[in-house]
């Protein structure tokens, strides 16, 4: 979980950096957690193959939905409702994927969403208009993420503990700022903009899609992404390869904070208010989505596509239970079973070595 | 007059402990329902008819007051109302302890008040069961206890219980909807319900009252989607509900704070074929009912003004007087407050009770 920087505290800047070619090779080596042994394993090491299990689960749920509820499930407006409900937690989960791949965890996401939403909807903030709301939410979210990252990376506090502290204090601060009042957004234009549906697709869903695409590109097509895998796979090897592990860790938490800020804007738009009760249990929902998406909690492996599928699976499940007018307790049980089933399925498909 | 902070939600009896623990960990604000009027409706109440002789200044009564921490609006209003009501009387001295959600601490606070030899105790226990013993001790020491809302385990622990009526709240909502459907001539209406947290006894009582009242009219709840007393949860539940039912005739949403999200979802979906009934009686809800330009036509109350009444009762007990409109020489042992049905016709009378959520 926590990247062990050597106890002498020397950073990689002291050593001469290896040539770029060599650096890439070592990074790749550090990122790979298991060497594929057979051809089958090599095929399955492809993340796309690992997502097959999830797609199967999602299809199964959809088939059940169509069989049970028919047209009311398969209608365009219902599909958009499912995606709209998935969008807020989806954005948070994309950020969470990065932190978990990098070997960390963040329990404070819900509290950061609450704090950002409250700070962005105070009377003083709203005086600056809709952009003031958006700007404040993003800045507060990112700042909280930065604090998390600094405490983890430079304070050497285990992420679980550091973000647990943030969970408590951010929500407490949100309650203080709002004085436990529910703060209404006075700018109708702000609400209208986010309620719009250009080309029939809600703005919130577009935001989720954009976040997912950008996240995928960042993770799979940039040095930043490669380094994230390297750090999560083996922090010490990554450090020796010349990656500034601590700075990168701060960046990962800040990125998740930014995602929480975006989610806060979305939730303000959806509910027309900012309140300290927003973001309830987001930490559990997002971690669950990331985990069933095939990301290893120990870091070093994961995929944005899997996370998105995970979020959509839970959102669809929730929708089907409501359409069927079923008990929420049954829903909670089903959710638990799906988490276990999906992870077991992935392990079969991916033949994950016992070490992970 | 200045209204106390909004009522946000109120943790309740049994669910509260578990919820509270979860809240501390999961950052979920241990919520429950809140209710209406964080009022300083106390003054209005005290000038109501029948106050006459009882309001005359008598000997000094020292009233001890203990409640949970004001971590959400409803409890905040309870504490504020108690102080405001005590300030109305020159012959009442209120000794209010710091609110706490730690049962141990609340017990020692009550013990402190017993040792200080207060005349009467007003206690809203964080957990009724856990505070029963110390309340009994107070009664044994000759200090009458006024038990507010969350009830003690034993009648020996209090002189009088005063609190809200969750079942009655459901009945009020069900009765209103049943009548609205009959007036419209809808024979088999699709009625939906958006409760708060299902595991809380208070939610179960509300739902039972609602179902019973509908049953009496020959109707039943078709769709039920629990939320969690938050605007966010309300929005989620309502979004799914509107997909589940293509046509709805009436919805009862248990809680007006959660109702903000419910209304937002309804606006997003551009639906308006139903009548919406709220619960608790927030200022927002009352404003909407008064404006009469949306689906929200009614809300049923659950009021923190009960703590003003508790202080008045404590004073009467201290003066050994009965309630002036009753014949008896002493106050009763139990008072269940009615849940009022607030509609466009009477909203003006209830506006002062509407709390800002």
UniProtKB/TrEMBL annotation, chain A:
It is a multi-pass membrane protein. CDD domains: TM_PBP1_transp_AraH_like. It is found in: Cell membrane. Residues 1-16 have a biased composition (Low complexity). Residues 1-34 are annotated as: Disordered. Its main location: membrane. Keywords: Cell membrane, Membrane, Transmembrane, Transmembrane helix. InterPro entries: ABC_transp_permease. GO terms for molecular function: transmembrane transporter activity. GO terms for cellular component: plasma membrane. The chain crosses the membrane at residues 48-67, 79-101, 131-151, 199-219, 250-269. PANTHER family: ABC TRANSPORTER PERMEASE PROTEIN YPHD-RELATED-RELATED, RIBOSE IMPORT PERMEASE PROTEIN RBSC. This is Ribose transport system permease protein. It comes from Motilibacter peucedani.
Automatic annotation (TrEMBL), chain B:
It comes from the Bacteria. Pfam families: Peripla_BP_4. PROSITE patterns: TAT (PS51318). Residues 1-26 form the signal peptide. It is found in: Cell envelope. GO terms for cellular component: cell envelope. GO terms for molecular function: carbohydrate binding. InterPro entries: Peripla_BP_I (IPR028082), SBP_2_dom (IPR025997), TAT_signal (IPR006311). Transmembrane segments: none annotated. Keywords: Signal. The keyword Glycoprotein does not apply. Residues 63-314 form the Periplasmic binding protein domain. The keyword RNA-binding does not apply. Belongs to the bacterial solute-binding protein 2 family. This is Ribose transport system substrate-binding protein.
């Amino acid at each position: 979980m926590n990247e062990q920087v050597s106890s002498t505290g020397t950073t990689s800047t002291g050593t001469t950096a290896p040539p770029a070619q060599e650096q890439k090779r070592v990074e790749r080596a550090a990122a790979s957690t298991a060497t594929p042994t057979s051809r089958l394993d090599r095929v399955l090491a492809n993340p796309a193959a690992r997502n097959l299990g999830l797609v199967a689960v999602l299809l199964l749920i959809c088939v059940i939905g169509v069989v049970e509820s028919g047209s009311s499930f398969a209608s365009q407006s219902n599909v958009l409702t499912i995606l709209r409900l998935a969008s807020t937690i989806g954005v948070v989960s994309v950020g969470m994927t990065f932190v978990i791949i990098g070997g960390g965890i963040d329990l404070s996401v819900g509290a950061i969403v609450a704090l950002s939403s409250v700070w962005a909807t105070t009377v003083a903030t709203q005086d600056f208009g809709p952009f003031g709301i958006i700007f404040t939410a993003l800045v507060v979210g990112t700042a909280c993420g930065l604090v998390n990252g600094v405490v983890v990376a430079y304070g050497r506090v285990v992420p679980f503990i550091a973000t647990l502290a943030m969970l408590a204090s951010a929500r407490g601060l949100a309650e203080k700022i709002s004085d436990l009042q529910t703060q209404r957004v006075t700018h109708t234009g702000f609400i209208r903009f986010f309620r719009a549906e250009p080309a029939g697709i809600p703005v919130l869903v577009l935001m989720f899609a954009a976040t997912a695409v950008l996240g995928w590109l960042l993770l799979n097509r940039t040095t930043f992404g490669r380094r994230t895998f390297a750090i999560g796979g083996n922090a010490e090897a990554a450090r020796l390869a010349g990656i500034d592990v601590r700075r990168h860790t701060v960046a990962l938490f800040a990125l998740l904070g930014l995602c929480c800020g975006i989610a806060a804007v979305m939730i303000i738009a959806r509910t027309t208010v900012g309140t300290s009760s927003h973001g309830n249990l987001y930490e559990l929902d997002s971690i669950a989505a990331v985990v069933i998406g095939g990301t290893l909690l120990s870091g070093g492996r994961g995929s944005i596509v899997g996370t998105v599928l995970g979020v959509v699976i839970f959102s669809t499940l929730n929708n089907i239970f409501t359409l069927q007018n079923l008990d929420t307790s049954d829903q909670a049980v089903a959710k638990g079973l799906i988490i276990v089933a999906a992870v077991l399925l992935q392990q079969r498909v991916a033949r994950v070595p016992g070490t992970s | 007059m200045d209204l106390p902070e909004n009522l946000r939600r109120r943790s309740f009896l049994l669910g509260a402990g578990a919820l509270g623990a979860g809240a501390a960990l999961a950052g979920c604000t241990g919520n429950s329902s809140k209710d209406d009027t964080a009022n300083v409706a106390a003054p209005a109440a005290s000038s109501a008819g029948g106050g006459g002789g009882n309001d005359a200044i008598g000997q000094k009564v020292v009233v001890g007051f203990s409640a949970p921490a004001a971590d959400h609006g409803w409890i905040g209003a309870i504490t504020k109302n108690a102080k405001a009501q005590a300030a109305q009387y020159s012959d009442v001295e209120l000794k209010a302890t710091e609110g706490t959600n730690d049962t141990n601490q609340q017990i020692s606070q009550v013990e402190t008040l017993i040792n200080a030899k207060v005349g009467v105790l007003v206690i809203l226990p964080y957990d009724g069961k856990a505070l029963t013993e110390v309340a009994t001790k107070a009664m044994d020491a000759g200090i009458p206890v006024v038990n507010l809302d969350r009830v003690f385990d034993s009648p020996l622990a209090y002189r009088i219980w005063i609190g809200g009526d969750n079942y009655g709240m459901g009945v009020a909502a069900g009765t209103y909807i049943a009548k609205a459907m009959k007036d419209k001539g809808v024979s088999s209406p699709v009625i939906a319900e958006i409760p708060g947290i299902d595991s809380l006894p208070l939610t179960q009582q509300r739902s039972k009252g609602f179902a019973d009242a509908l049953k009496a009219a020959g109707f039943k709840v078709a769709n039920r989607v629990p939320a969690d007393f938050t605007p966010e949860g309300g929005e989620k539940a309502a979004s799914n509900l509107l997909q589940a039912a293509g046509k709805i005739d009436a919805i009862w949403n248990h809680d007006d704070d959660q109702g903000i999200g419910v209304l937002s979802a309804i606006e997003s979906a551009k639906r308006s074929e139903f009548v919406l009934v709220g619960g608790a009686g927030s200022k927002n809800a009352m404003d909407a009912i008064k404006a009469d330009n949306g689906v929200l036509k009614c809300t049923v109350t659950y009021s923190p003004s009960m703590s003003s009444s508790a202080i008045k009762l404590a004073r009467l007990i201290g003066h050994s007087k009965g309630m002036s409109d009753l014949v008896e020489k002493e106050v009763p042992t139990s008072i269940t407050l009615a849940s009022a049905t607030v509609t466009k016709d009477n909203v003006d009378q209830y506006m002062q009770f509407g709390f800002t959520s």
